[in-house]
Amino acid sequence: MVEYLKQHGIIKSREVAEVMEAIDRGLFVPAGCPPYVDRPVQIGYNATISAPHMHASCLELLEKQLLPGMSALDVGSGTGYLTACFALMVGPQGHVVGVEHIPELVTSSVENIKKSSAASLSKEGSLSIHVADGRLGWPELAPCDAIHVGAAAPEIPQPLIDQLKPGGRMVIPVGTVFQNLKVVDKKLDGSVSVRNEICVWYVPFTSRATQLHDY
Ligand code: SAH
User: Fold this and answer.
1) Mutation choice for ligand 1 from 201, 203, 207, CB with most ligand atoms inside 8 A
2) Residues with Cβ within 6 A of ligand 1?
3) What distance in Å separates the CA atoms of residue 51 and residue 106, rounded to the nearest whole number?
4) d(CA 147, CA 171)
């Protein structure tokens, strides 16, 4: 899988290749589903684990904000795959928080991480996952170097912009029918720039009731 992503120019950096080799996607995909094929997989509760090329693209975009000792927030952490990757990249001196509003997914993501090479980071406390509405971010971790949002918002929630550190970066899919993966950079003077990276298709960033209404 990592070789394929490298050949297609999606993985460019050694750090991203290494972390995606180290965190086995097979531990995060429900049993019976092909873990290493480049497509999203249903994980229940109207949610999916993103395709490997999306995980790789987000890791590439956030690489400079995931250096050892930095802090990262994974909003809509789902299976916990990217949360685990972030934790491995920032290491034991860093801090990573996952926020997910489906309690069952939080429980299974914690179990997935326990089986992965990020297990010790979870045990020692540099990685934690919480049940909460991610649209409010996680103020206790703020300000964060990196924020990743794994579900598409109608617009960028202000609390997430506020919780970004100067020099920090957020990657967030935005849109309803047509979605763009937006890269939000907070400069050292506090000003914010936003650019579109690629067109994407994510599940909505919404309330728990709306997400589960037909489930
Ligand atoms: N990066 C995750 C993506 C999971 S899909 C992975 O690859 O496993 C998006 C996730 O966002 C779902 O698990 C969904 O339950 C969650 N989500 C949607 N709206 C949310 C909200 N308001 N607060 C927290 N989590 C949310």
Assistant:
1) 203
2) 45, 47-50, 76-79, 81-82, 99-102, 105, 133-135, 150-151, 203, 205-206, 211
3) 19
4) 6
Predicted TM-score of the model (pTM) = 0.97
Q: Where are the alpha helices (DSSP H) in the chain?
A: 2-7, 14-22, 52-62, 81-90, 103-115, 119-124, 158-162, 208-212
How far is the centre of ligand 1, averaged over its atoms, from the C-alpha of 3 (Å)? 27
In tens, the pLDDT along 26-56 reads: 999 999 999 999 999 999 999 999 999 999 9
Could you give the CA distance from residue 105 to residue 44 in angstroms, rounded to a whole number? 9
Average pLDDT, the chain: 97
| Ligand 1 center to 18 CA (angstroms) | 25
